[in-house]
Amino acid sequence: MGDEALFLARVQFAFTVSFHFIFPAFSIGLASFLMVLEGAWLRTGRGVYANLYRYWLKIFAVAFGMGVVSGIVMSYQFGTNWSVFSDKAGPVVGPLMAYEVLTAFFLEAGFLGVMLFGINKVGPTLHFFATCMVALGTFISATWIISTNSWMHTPQGFAINGQGQFVPAGSWLPIIFNPSFPYRLTHVVIAAYLTTSLVVGAVGAWHLLRDRTNPGARKMFSMAMWMVAIAAPAQILAGDAHGLNTLEHQPAKVMAMEGHYDSHPNGAPLILFGIPNAAEKRIDYAIEIPKASSLILKHDPNAPLAGLDTIPDDREPPVTVVFWSFRVMVGLGMAMLGLGLFSLVARFRRQLYDWRWLHRAAMIMGPAGFVAVIAGWITTEVGRQPYTVYGYLLTAQSHSPLRAAAVATSLLTFVIVYFIVFGAGTYYLLRLMAKAPAPHESEPASTPQRATGFTPAPALSKE
Predict the structure, then answer these.
(1) For residues 301 and 268, is the Cβ–Cβ distance under 8 A?
(2) Residue 408 · residue 233 · CB < 8 Å
(3) Contact indicator for 407, 12 with CB cutoff of 8 Å
(4) Which of 114, 142, 270, 376 would be 130's cystine partner, CB 3.0–4.6 Å?
(5) What are phi and psi of 24, to 5 degrees?
(6) For the chain, first and last CA: distance in Å?
(7) Cα(105)–Cα(137) distance, rounded to whole angstroms?
């Protein structure tokens, strides 16, 4: 297997995981949103929450299904394109992936049917319990996946046996709770909530621009803007903590993110923009703030920061990709913060449903969460290169012995099938979102009882 086949195998995995990642990022947040909506209906008895629950449940079902299908494809690639990695890391990675199936996937599968089809067949409290279990399942799934991936970034708690395999060295706890796991899990979960809130806010804004009196549009827009206003600054704080953790355990990645080709013994500048020049190992046309990088990363403007000149050339991550993807992620994060502040001003002025510029801004920011999570994933995974298990197993040593033509054929097939299947699914999702929440559905006469019997739930019926 030559360099061409290795490159194509990496492109194929990047392509499929990028498609897959956007669906869990949406479904994790949307499952929690559905849980909040149904809980609010049970607590208040207001039909607007029941209407919104039905509205977003259809969208969740489609997004969840596409996420499951795209995830299955990724699993096969470990055996087809990355068999050496599977052999060497399988004793650690395999059980962690199995735990995800045995806990999260079984939990989701067990209650998803009740959540989707039991809305008029079981009692309100039992149905709410099913919704909570699906939301919990999405979080548990993210926990196991992030733990597995984080171990590949900050491996610990293992030994290498005579066959060159990574095997647990006693307890599994150091493997599961590896150094980067809590930071990355927090960062990813908040990103999922932000992604969902931006989509919900964009849909609400779309319908407010057409009918600002629609109660469902008003309610979903208000809830989404609250989440953006709260989660955006929380994500900035979580990202800062994650960056400090990365500096400790993967300094080369931070050097590439910051564009620090050279070491700075007396304080490193924060490079806002520039053009990485890999050949000359410098940032051309750099716009920078002196010593600000040391202030952010070390909390001391004069603290020294090492550069990529301390890393062997064959162990450096691709600076250009990491440099720009990081800035896309941070830039969108700042835009999300701005949208949240804009919504707070409008809310304070009692103009949340009237400021059309706010609604237009929310619509523009609708896809921003998806772009940001992909940019963040690129920053994380490309910044780990040239390793699959950081510091121990090189990507060039992890591939299967395949010819470039075979990998190219499968990659082309994936591209065609994905764009047809998921393109159609995305089009259907947009069609669902384009329909306004029905304003004519009446509110229940009284707050539903918290009974658990197998009785219809009148407030959730379409009568």
Answers:
(1) no
(2) no
(3) yes
(4) 114
(5) -60, -35
(6) 63
(7) 7
User: What is the residue whose two structure tokens read 């952010």?
Assistant: 296
**Residue 262 in tokens:** 């050279």
Q: Which residues lie across from 288 on neighbouring strands?
A: 271
Using CA of residue 435, residue 436, residue 441, residue 443, what is the dihedral sign? positive
Residue 141's nearest CA partner among 68, 214, 69, 237 is 68
Give the percent of the chain with pLDDT over 70. Answer: 94
Q: Are 340 and 301 in contact (CB under 8 A)?
A: no
Q: Which residues contact 235 (CB under 8 A, 6 or more apart)?
A: 187, 190, 191, 194, 333, 336
Do residues 290 and 229 lie in contact, with contact meaning Cβ atoms separated by under 8 Å? no
Task: Name the burial class of residue 332, with classes exposed (0-12), middle (13-18) and buried (19+) by CB atoms within 10 angstroms of its CB.
Answer: buried
pTM above 0.85, yes or no: yes
Instruction: Give the start-to-end residue ranges of the domains of the chain.
Output: 3-263+306-460
Q: Provide the 10 A C-beta neighbour count for residue 186.
A: 18
Task: In the chain, count H helices and then E strands.
Answer: 14, 6
Give 106-128 pLDDT, tens digit per residue: 888 889 888 888 888 888 889 89
The SS3 call for residue 48 is helix
Cis peptide before 269 (omega within 30 of 0): no
The pairing of beta strand 166-168 with beta strand 282-289: unpaired
Residue 270: strand pairing partners: 289
Could you read off the pLDDT of 294-315 as tens digits, one per residue?
898 888 888 898 989 898 888 9
Q: What CA–CA distance (Å, rounded) separates 419 from 6?
A: 23
Q: How many CB atoms lie within 10 A of CB 229?
A: 19
Cross-strand pairs, 168 = 158
Closest CA to 33 of 142, 195, 184: 195
Position 162 confidence tier, pLDDT thresholds 50, 70, 90: confident
Contact 22, 186 (CB under 8 A): no
Q: Which two tokens stand for residue 214?
A: 């629609």
Neighbour count for residue 211 (Cβ, 10 Å): 11
